[in-house]
Design brief:
heterodimer; A: mainly alpha; 70% helix; elongated; B: alpha+beta; seven-stranded mixed sheet; six-stranded antiparallel sheet; 46% helix
Chain lengths: 63, 871
């Protein structure tokens, strides 16, 4: 059972890493707005996707 | 259309006629396109010029994907048409613009008209539309956009105009400094929760190992290792995240008040110290698991509570953002210079160009224009303004330049006074009296007294036991469940309510709404539709196509109502037509001279061609004009706009009510705007335009009355109109108050608050102060932006039926809260009794404590407060 003297501090080290990651994310403002990113991720598209449409759309601007 | 209107004459067949033509929907917002705006040659139809512009911009920049988004807004694009020149002023930049590190500038803008996911998509595509804008990010809940742009490449006014043309008029966000502070606080609170949560979880794991070892046996060195590890983890939890409790308890001690944090701090401190001593001496239980878990749970409860209160604090900030920051002052020699709004003094002469907002109250010195007073009154039609008229800060000049002599500036402005009242009312409400908090003072005193008594009692008999029993008492009576019950139940209820289309900003509103109280309603836009429609037609049917022919091309609200009412009839094309602002329209259709408009206008313009009125004509139309009828616009019975107070309105200027004999005792007709129709000099029909009642109003009000609510109407509209509307809805005349200014409404609410809680339901900015002053303010679907900002609750579904759901849900939520508090109190009484007599040791107390919290938590989460599935 003496392996626990080694494993437990190691586990705590992992916890420490997790806490540090959480603090980093908090300080960077990752949790400031919890509503919009959920919407944004659904809309996100590659910028390339809108580029062809750019030329197609020009004929319709008179609409 | 308006079922409640007494059917006195031939009714208008609007509902049946409208379905005949399949509605064409706007290519941008998908609303039906009015017949008059349809262009059969064009491939796409638009409901308004704003939608057309927005569509062109999006297409031009290859953003047609917008139209594929599953969730698009369902309202026409409303652009303010302002120039936003003040956004380029150095004073503006000094106040609101910050430089980012990489040569860009950053500004936070509050956007009007943000509602859904497609708004996020659109606003964040602005960098694609406008080169020079590096980044645009929108917080959809708070409608705050952060824009980063290269100020050398593109002026901020251009960015603002682009946002405006997409339908999101921007305003500088004035709460920036407070915002920074608040962001720091929120992040710190989250960091505390995260750290204490991680520590608590690991201490709990160690405790689990220790408890298992208690029964199955554990080698002493390993047990010691676990105990020391718990100590090592509990110490940072207590001096890090747990410090807030000691600080607040110390602050309470210094001000000699009893605070719930006091027993918490004592329990935390005593448990920790005793646990540490036991760890070092290697005897007796350690209490670290209970202590750390307590810190974590309490921090969670507080965070939830704080978030709810935050939303309410945004209100005044947003309102301030709606008034302009600068103005152009004319000096004596006629030179205009731009000055900050703060520097304007009474007596200054302001030049207000078309498309600019007024920065101060004043009197028009020269010029004629139309002013949009929507910010103050919620009224969407521009008001005609000429020399000598009073104009107010925050309103928008839409037609032509005017010069305004300032009478009140700065804090004396009407908008500032209203906002101050909003702030004061909000401030008075701030000390949130939560059910749990009321108990906390007593609870604290009792617990501390009990612990001391137990300690003294046991010291005499068994000094070894005394400290353990006292700690067990403090731990077992920890007001954890008490502190969690309220915020958890409230948070769960708010979430469920949001799914039912009711947005609740603060939990305290639920407490008020759970019991019948006084409920005031605004009339226009709340009880009624808030838009003009044709509700009455008296006379021949045959002129209808002729009227439609004249009104088809007009943008006037009454013309829109005419089109909505007889939109599908075939109508000839007029030979010529002429619109007269404030009067009506005249023209020639199918060989007849047609005059449609206010009685005064028709009287003066309808002349039989060639010959005066004949005997034949007199017989055909008994109300033929033989002399000028009463047309005094300032007559006391002239309809006044509900949301506009006494402000004159363009479309009602110069009109008169039907006539005294018809107003008295004929109910709702007094609320109608009369329009006469003359063909070839003979008045052949009279139409009444008014505001129709919302269809479910009567049922909703009756249901509330049945539950014991006291209802009343507070309206800016004319007293007899309010009484007429009220009587059809079952109000006693005494319950209907009309002719009120925003300030009157506020006073009425404040007076009623003396005798109990007051709920105010409204939609205009003139309701904003009353809504803020009421115990609970409710904004209804389609209300003015500023009113929704101050309301505690916002109903997203049209109609008042949500009110019933709201009161029922509140009652159920309060029942859940009361059950939770009763349970935790009962638990504490039993636990404290056992601890005092020494029947439980601190270890069992530490296990029981989270058990009670979990029970309360589950009850709060599972409780069915609002029927979330309701469509």
């Amino acid at each position: 059972m003496s392996i626990i003297y080694l494993v437990l501090p190691l586990a705590l080290l992992v916890v420490l890493l997790g806490v540090l990651a959480f603090l980093w994310a908090t300080r960077r403002g990752q949790y400031d707005d919890l509503d919009t990113p959920a919407i944004r991720v659904l809309h996100d598209d590659a910028p390339g996707a809108s580029a062809p449409d750019h030329y197609a759309g020009q004929t319709e601007t008179r609409g | 259309m308006a079922p409640a209107v007494p059917d006195r004459a031939s009714s208008v067949g609007a509902p049946t006629t409208r379905v005949a033509v399949p509605p064409v929907s706007c290519a941008h917002c998908a609303l039906p396109v009015p017949r008059g705006l349809m262009d059969d040659a064009a491939p796409r139809q638009f409901c308004c010029a704003g939608c057309r512009t927005a569509y062109a911009i999006l297409r031009e920049h290859g953003l047609g994907q917008y139209y594929e988004l599953p969730e698009r807004r369902d309202r026409p694009v409303t652009t303010s048409g302002r120039t936003f020149d003040e956004f380029d002023h150095p004073a503006f930049h000094a106040l609101y613009v910050k430089a980012t590190g990489n040569g860009l500038s950053r500004v936070e803008l509050y956007l009007e008209g943000v509602h859904c996911g497609s708004c996020v998509w659109l606003v964040e595509r602005v960098p694609l539309i406008l080169p020079g804008v590096a980044r645009a990010e929108l917080n959809v809940r708070r409608a705050l956009a952060t824009v980063e742009w290269d100020s050398a490449a593109v002026p901020l006014s251009r960015v603002a105009r682009t946002l405006d043309s997409l339908g999101y008029p921007p305003h500088p966000f004035r709460g920036m400094r407070r915002e920074e502070l608040r962001r720091r606080e929120d992040r710190a609170a989250l960091a505390r929760i995260g750290v204490s949560g991680a520590l608590a979880a690991n201490v709990m794991l160690a405790a689990l190992a220790l408890y298992s070892g208690w029964w199955s046996g554990m080698e002493a060195p390993i047990a010691r290792f676990f105990r020391w590890m718990s100590l090592a983890l509990a110490t940072p939890a207590l001096i890090g995240p747990g410090r807030v409790f000691f600080q607040s308890a110390w602050a309470a001690l210094r001000t000699r008040t009893l605070h719930m944090d006091l027993p918490i701090a004592i329990a935390l401190g005593a448990g920790f110290v005793r646990g540490a001593i036991n760890t070092v001496t290697d005897t007796g239980p350690i209490y670290f698991d209970g202590v750390v878990m307590l810190v974590f749970l309490l921090l969670c409860g507080r965070y939830l509570q704080q978030r709810g209160q935050r939303a309410a604090a945004d209100a005044a900030e947003l309102l301030y953002s709606l008034t302009p920051a600068t103005a152009r002052v004319l000096s004596a020699d006629g030179v205009a210079r731009e000055v900050p709004a703060e520097a304007i003094v009474p007596g200054d002469l302001l030049e207000v160009r078309s498309g600019e907002s007024l920065a101060a109250d004043g009197v028009v010195a020269s010029g004629e224009s139309a002013v949009n007073v929507a910010l103050l009154t919620g009224e969407s039609h521009p008001v005609f303004t000429r020399q000598g008229d009073k104009v107010f800060a925050g309103t928008l000049n839409v037609a032509s330049p005017i010069r305004v002599r300032v009478t009140e500036a700065g804090e004396e402005r009407r908008v500032a006074r209203i906002l101050r009242q909003v702030e004061e009312s909000a401030g008075r409400r701030a000390p949130v009296v939560q059910l749990a908090d009321r108990l906390a003072g007593w609870f604290t005193a009792v617990v501390v007294a009990l612990a001391v008594t137990a300690f003294l009692f046991w010291t005499g008999r068994d000094p070894e036991q005394a400290i353990d029993n006292a700690i067990a008492l403090l731990v077992v009576t920890c007001p954890c469940a008490l502190a969690l019950a309220t915020p958890l139940a409230v948070t769960a209820a708010i979430g469920r309510a949001a799914r039912a289309g009711i947005f609740i900003k603060g939990g305290e509103a639920l407490e008020t709404l759970s019991k019948p109280a006084t409920l005031f309603l605004d009339k226009t836009g709340t009880l009624t539709e808030g838009r003009t429609s044709l509700v009455h037609w008296e006379g021949a049917e045959w002129p209808k196509p002729l009227v439609l022919a004249l009104e088809r091309e007009s943008t006037h609200p009454l013309a829109a109502a005419v089109r909505a009412a007889f939109g599908n009839q075939p109508a000839p094309v007029p030979e010529w037509s002429r619109h007269v602002i404030g009067g009506g329209v005249e023209g020639r259709v199918s060989g007849h001279q047609i005059v449609v408009g206010s009685p005064k206008f028709v009287t003066s313009h309808a002349r039989p061609e060639g010959a005066p009125a004949t005997e034949e004509a007199l017989r055909r139309a008994p109300w033929l004009i033989t002399g000028a009828p009463r047309t005094d616009p300032s007559s006391p019975s002239a309809p006044r706009d509900d949301r506009g107070g006494t402000a004159p309105r363009e479309d009602r200027g110069g009109t008169a009510p039907w006539g005294d004999d018809e107003i008295e005792g004929t109910g709702i007709d007094g609320a109608l705007t009369p329009v006469w129709v003359a063909v070839d000099g003979v008045v052949v029909a009279r139409a009444g335009f008014g505001d129709a009642l919302r269809c479910d109003t009567r049922e909703a009000l009756d249901a509330l009355r049945a539950r014991g609510w006291r209802l009343g109407i507070l309206s800016g509209d004319d007293e007899h109109v309010v009484r007429a509307v009220g009587s059809t809805l079952g109000f006693a005349p005494g319950e209907c108050r009309g002719g009120l200014t925003p300030e009157d409404k506020l006073h009425a609410v404040e007076r009623a608050r003396m005798s109990g809680p007051v709920v105010m339901v409204g939609d205009g900015v003139n309701d904003a102060a009353a809504i803020a002053a009421a115990t609970v303010g409710i904004g209804v679907h389609g209300g003015a932006e500023a009113c929704l900002a101050t309301a505690d609750i916002y109903l997203t579904k049209p109609g008042l039926s949500s009110l019933i759901e709201l009161t029922q849900g509140s009652r159920r939520t309060m029942a859940i809260i009361r059950r939770g508090i009763a349970f935790s109190l009962a638990y504490n009484v039993v636990g404290a009794t056992l601890a005092v007599v020494g029947a439980i040791n601190p270890l069992i107390a530490a296990v029981l404590m989270p058990a009670s919290s979990l029970t309360v938590l589950l009850a709060a989460w599972r409780g069915r407060s609002f029927a979330g599935e309701a469509a």
